[in-house]
Amino acid sequence: MSTASIIRIALFAYLAIFFSYLLGPLVVMSLTAFNSAAFPSVSPWACYTYEWFDVLFNDKHIKEGIYYSVIIGLGTVALSVSMGLAASIVLTQVWAKFRSTYYTLIIAPILVPGVVLGISTLVFWDRFGDFIRAGDGSMLDGLFHNGIFLTILGQSSFIASYCMLVFVARLQRFDPGLTEAALDLGATHTQAFRKILLPFMRPAIASASVLAFLASFENYNTTTFTIVKYKTLTTVLAQKVRLGINPSISALAFIIIMMTIILALGFETYRRNNARKEAVRLGKAKESKGFLPGFLTGNPAAIVLVLVSFVVISMIGTAQSYSPQQCKAEVLAAKKAEVAKAIKALKLKRTIKQQSDSLKGPDIFTPDPANKKGSFGGVFDPNNLTNEEPAKPEAPAANKKPASGAFGGVFDPNNLQKD
Amino acid sequence: MSSGVAVDLENVWIKFGDFVAVREANVNINGGDFFSFLGPSGCGKTTILRAVSGFLEPSDGRVLIGGNNMAGIGPNKRPTALIFQNLALFPLMKIWENISFSMEVAGASAKERRKRADELLDMIALEGQGDKLPSELSGGQKQRVAIARALCANPDVLLLDEPLSALDLKLRQHMRTELREIQQRVGITFIYITHDQGEALTMSDNVAVMKAGVIDQIDNGHEIYDRPATPFVASFVGENNVFRGKISQISGSEAVISSNRSGELRAQITPSQVGKMNVGDDAMMFVRPEALALGESDPASKTTVSAKVLNEEFEGASFSVFLEGDGGKQIKMAMPNLGQKLEGHTGETLSVHYDANNAVVMPAGELASE
Q1: pTM surpassing 0.80?
Q2: Which residue does chain B place closest to A198, by CA atoms?
Q3: Are B90 and A181 inside 8 Å of each other by CB?
Q4: Residues B248, B278 contacting (CB under 8 angstroms)
């Protein structure tokens, strides 16, 4: 085999590993959304189901979290985009010697840990309220202790810096001569800003807005301090993880992933379609006369987009009628049979043990080696408390899912209900 | 169209920190003139233009437009329109929107603006191109759009900052005539900045030649070329042979210079220095290559130089003959191509003479560096 082909194989292997590392968790997470098992898992596969979407849409905490996340996201976009734009314009105007210092100063919030920003936002506005003597129950006092207000401020304090970076990159390509030309033609400074600079910055404003919204939407460590009595999607999810999750979170992840894919494909389709039209207009390419609609020709993104949309639509369609009751019943029956078998084996074992115990006497202090399934030796397993039977190893089998997580399945809500 | 308005600079100084960009500029530009500032890059000509358009306030002195002091009046309030070196067309606006921008900011309706833009597009021979974007036009077309945009504001003074420097030679020559035509048609004052002496001489009524922030000479093209006031002007505008020496004799406006290497030479004193020069002063004498001709050696006339032919260059319309005088003095002579044969003279010593009226003498000074 030649070196070239070895290199190529190695490259492909590397890419495969890289992409599975990147996308693997997302794929697994998406799959768990369709498994009827109560804990997010792919194997063993129980039944294909849409019930977790139902659970998701009926979860009022998640709905509330999304609602506030969106409100805070929009507020953060408005505040941080305007602050970032102002900061970047100042950067181009500021005295040259001061420029690098100013830049460092403005960029610093990105380097400050989010936790610190969160706590300091909370403390600062509380003190500030005290300082200006905003009394209890006054409007200002309410504002300074309002989670939405504080979260928007806290998040904007560093998201504005991200926005500024986006704007600075765009501003570097702006010809200040254009503003001068506008002024020379009689425009006021406001008109020059609104008619010349702002339209030029529009693409940057759009991307900064998207960036700001996403950064706000996914932010946890600042939000968790500033949100006070409200909740956002991230804080709700964090709470759920603490109390035990179910695949409705996977369902949410799946929806977000699909939205991302569809938006990205849509944008790419739009871009390629424009590029094609431009090429046709300049006479570099011919207007195709194939049987496919124009926007599909030579546009793989459009084709993938159509396929994905088709899959999603058909999923939503079948979700209305599809019911996995039959499968579920079968799984339940299989489970019951397994449990019965386990009980039988247990009984058999017990009789054997009793026989030998009658010879040796009870020895409940000898740790059962099979008990050490989880990393904490199963001590956190609630079954330990209720199940006094020393014949512990059979319990996970009856549980259908072996406790395979690092915490021995302690997060499984079923653990609390079983037995 | 508004008629031309006079622009005056009175004792204008412009300083950036310790650096003096413009020193004591006194310029009177008549209404309706095509006036050029000519100078090498970095001489302060753009700075003057920015002071007239209002982007800069002079550190000292006054700028008057139509007799009104412009101190404290911003660029958007002055009756001037500037055409930028890079044109500064608004890239996201269509051509007609670009042209009518000054009306848009004044609050004119889209219909009015479109109508005026179409009129101006007709004038610059770009009818029907109003809906294109600037990026879709060629360099010369953009140039004309920039002019139309400036004219749309009905300025009293049009300021042009080297607008032709980005164009290729042919287009540049074409645009020169076109600019001059437009200026004559609209009749407003044009102030033109250039480092190209050809542009300045062909288009302008008057030219100011600048060197390192100082205006050396203001005059019409002929005077600038034939009677340069300083060694800098003489060497910057066109080609010149320079002879250094000391004044040996003065009679009225004529002087004889005893040159370092080429003997006694007679020339006219430049008008601004008549009566100010004395015998024994360090002086420079300039004579244009085209003012030299082959002739009999006649030392008594004090207008002949003998020199050895080094080589000749054929340039189509003319020959350039490079000669070497006594002591290695380099002399260039230009002869019109009239079909004569000049080959075979290389190495010969010839006598070259000129008319004393075509030579200028002035106090020694700094030459333009090539």
Answers
A1: no
A2: B92
A3: yes
A4: no
